[in-house]
Amino acid sequence: MQVVQSNLRGALFSLAAFAVYASNDTLVKFLGASYSPFLLIFFTGLLGFPLVTIMLMSDNSDGNLIPKHPYWTALRTMAAVLNGITGFYAFSVLPLAQCYAIIFAMPILITLLAIPILGEKIGIHRGLAILVGLIGVMIVLRPGQVPLGLGHLSALAAAFLGATTSVIVRKIGHAERSIVLMIYPMVANFVVMAVALPFVYVPIPIEHFGLMAAMSLLGLVAGLFMIAAYRHAPAIIVAPMQYSQMIWAILFGALFFNESIDQWTAVGAAVIILAGVYIVLREDRPGLSKNRPVLETRSRYDGGTTPRISTWMRLFDRKRMRAKVEGLAGKDGDA
Q: Which of 14, 228, 254, 290 could be joined to 241 by an S-S link, Cβ 3.0–4.6 Å?
């Protein structure tokens, strides 16, 4: 009974997290009609940086900021920066539901990239799920029937780049300090966006600046909800909840942008979601996946402006363990 209650809490926390994420994406779309992705990422990252800095300063583990895997770290950093740009642009120009449908291909791409990067062995079941998921992407895009714009390409790029960053973190995460995994994409984001800012800057009304601050806050709140979800429930329960964002996309799209989901986008999204859920279920079976790349990906697309959930949790776990050890040492000293 206790396990069921804990799993239920985890599911509810994850549903809340993805509702907050969807609200954040709605603000991205609203502000993206007036501002460049470079400007939005710069200010949302800048406004969220003080809170993130406090978390980074709490990492008292021994070591320096030199990565043990510099080439993988550089590739992941570059992918994270591009991931944020393409993701913000896609949400700015595409209908919310269509954008989510394409980005939901991330688990399929993670599974594909895990083969060369992690040495993951893919059997016929996951292989067929990958094929079905890619067919779902083609149903959404309908190449040859519907003109493909830069927004569609950006959404595909965001899915691919998000999958790339996730698989790289899975490959080097055990060796790198959490602060190294966090700080490089954030600093690179700040530098790249700052360089681009003079070319895209336009005056920002105070109310829009407040919405950018809200985006930073929403990203951090959603991250905290995700951490709470993984504290209460296993990944097999939390991970599929990401698809609840499609419900919010349809609702927010209709309410704020007068959008409606067309038949083929709905069919393609359903196919992609079913393929993603099946991959998650297969990964959870003992002995079928040594890396569990999708289940261990606890973040959405990697914009680099907020810490990844997996590295954030590692930092918190290390702090908790250190406090526990110090507490036990204190008791021994008193004795």
A: 14
Give per-residue pLDDT as tens, 245-285. Answer: 999 999 999 999 999 888 889 999 999 999 999 999 888 88
Taking residue 207's Cβ as centre, other Cβ atoms within 10 Å add up to: 7
Q: Longest Cα pair distance anywhere in the chain, in angstroms?
A: 77
Number of Cα atoms under 13 Å in the Cβ half of residue 82: 19
Integer CA distances (angstroms), 305 to 48, 188, 220, in order? 8, 10, 10
DSSP code for 301: S
Task: DSSP letter for 240, please.
Answer: G
Per-residue tokens: 107: 């688990």
- CA 325 to each of CA 61, 63, 319: distance values in angstroms, whole numbers, following the listed order: 14, 19, 10
Total domains in the fold of the chain:
1
pLDDT one-digit tens code per residue, 160-210: 999 999 899 889 878 877 778 888 888 888 899 999 999 999 999 999 999
Among residues 115, 118, 107, the alpha carbon closest in space to that of 300 is found at 107
Q: Which residue range is the domain that position 133 belongs to?
A: 2-334
pTM summary value: 0.87
Q: Cα separation of 135 and 141, whole Å?
A: 10
